[in-house]
Amino acid sequence: MAPPNPATPGLLSVPRITTLLASLIVAVGSGTNYVPYSPQLAARLNINHTQLNIVALAANVGVYSSGPFWGRIVDSRGPRIPLSFAFVFLFFGYTGIRYFYNVGVEDGATVSSLSLALLIACSFMTGTGGNAGFTGAINSTAKSFPDKARATTTGIVLSGFGLSAFFFSTLAHVLFPGNTSSFLLLLSLGTALTSIIGLLLVRTIPLSAAESGDHTVATTVAAEAEATIFHHGNDSHTPLLDEEIAPSSPTEEYVSDARGIELSPPRSPSTARGRSTSHGRSLSRSRKQEAFEGPNIYGRALWINPDFWLLFAILSLLSGTGLMYINNVGSMSQALFSQDNPAYDEVEASKWQATQVSTISIMNFAGRIIIGLISDNIKNRFGFPRSYSLLLVSSLFFSSQLLAAQITDVTNLWKASALVGLSYGTIFGIFPTVCIEFFGLSHFSENWGYLSLSPLVGGNLFSIAFGRNLDAHDPGETTAAVTAVRTAAHQCLEGRSCYVATLGLTGAACFAAILLSALAAWRERRKLMAASAARPRIVWEDTEN
């Protein structure tokens, strides 16, 4: 076997750390879909909440639907093409939104259908561009660090994506308080700048064969090792036998099965030489693959793989729960704040909404780092697959929905928001590495892109359920506070009863995800045990006196 390449940088070398930090910066500029400018945009353009939701949905569709496309490109061509498109789409997307905001509409007028369509297109561009940059960053990080540190390093990059909304919102509040136009300009220039940094600094740093999680490389090395073992010199006294080779004399015994090979030394060196050569030639490629290769599943094989649909279902249920809460926590806080509150204050209500957004963003950031450390520790110290962490993540989501359903005071809503943010961060912090473990590293970004379609299912389903729940609790204009709020936005103002039924639905979904996570962990553990049992092992037996 060839010696390790001395030019390969070390784990904590400057090239690897540079890629990690640059990828983190790109991720911070890629997760801006949840920054809070939508209410101001709706008021400026005089569009209703249905139209505003369509604009917001376009960004989410851009994120999740473009995943397979960017994934295939970055797997085959590297991160530069996606990062280039990220620069273009993010810059022109936010510039277009800012243009429509600055132009606005006259008092009493409504935005034209053409302008609304272009605004939706700009929103779609921001989502697609953000995902392009993020895909390039996470792929380069995953392929630049060995398996033992992969969950931690990808978790760091993923945390940047989760922190994005908080970072830009806070920066805008400090530099341009209350100026939405300047905020959109900051988004346009800031996200484009992070893409440029990625173009200059993000690249895949090669791993040595021993460090790589790519089983294609590992197989080549293993084959070379086999050749060294089976084609040794004429002084060999240790033939390796399998079921295809019969013993040459009654004095020799062997047992061969899928788990190992037992041998007793031959009486003649010449017999050893001949049988060693014969065995080396008889090894089939399928046996080598069975013994040394890990998963490399993609394309049609991915779509017919039951594990793919199992993970798809788990991610859909959990991410859908998170998206439902994140997209509607403003309505939840408003419902709690306005209940039995004759002194309703719109400014004060907005502060409580901003508190939830900041809390979710910070905990989202923390969750992506924490789960990476936990899953790496579980695998490296205890030898358990990272899919075991899905049980923890599903349990966190379930607990968050139970907690949210019990809160009746807006001053306590931050507790549920913190737990939802933590849970949402952990699910997207662990799932990319679980995707690698189940399906391999070679086509990771493409496979992850297909898995990333799942939030569209759960997110839309639960969000629609939340909206229907609100509509079913449309209050009458019985108080001045209700009248004021209904004039600004059609919201339910009956407190927890406005949405608690939806939390019951998402709570049940999270409990189902716990059961599915247990099934996924069990299936992965069974596969690993089967693969371990199938690896050839040599048992030496000396029958000579």
Please give the structural blueprint.
Blueprint: H1 14-28, H2 38-45, H3 49-65, H4 67-77, H5 80-103, H6 113-144, H7 147-175, H8 180-201, H9 215-230, E1 255-256, E2 261-263, H10 269-282, H11 285-292, H12 300-303, H13 306-338, H14 346-382, H15 389-406, H16 413-439, H17 444-451, H18 454-472, H19 480-488, H20 500-534, E3 538-540
Parallel strand pairs: 2-3
Antiparallel strand pairs: 1-2
Structure, described:
With 545 residues, this protein is mostly helical. It has three domains: 9-212, Growth Hormone, Chain: A (Up-down Bundle), CATH 1.20.1250.20; 215-294, no CATH class; 295-545, Growth Hormone, Chain: A. It is 71% helix and 1% strand. It has 20 helices and three strands. Strands 1-2-3 form a three-stranded mixed sheet, with no helix packed on it. Strand 1 (255-256) and strand 2 (261-263) form a beta hairpin. The chain is globular, with a radius of gyration of 28 Å. The chain starts with 13 loop residues before the first helix and ends in a 5-residue tail after the last strand.
Which properties best describe this structure?
545 residues, mainly alpha, Growth Hormone, Chain: A, three-stranded mixed beta sheet, 20 helices, 3 strands, 71% helix, 1% strand, globular, transmembrane, MFS
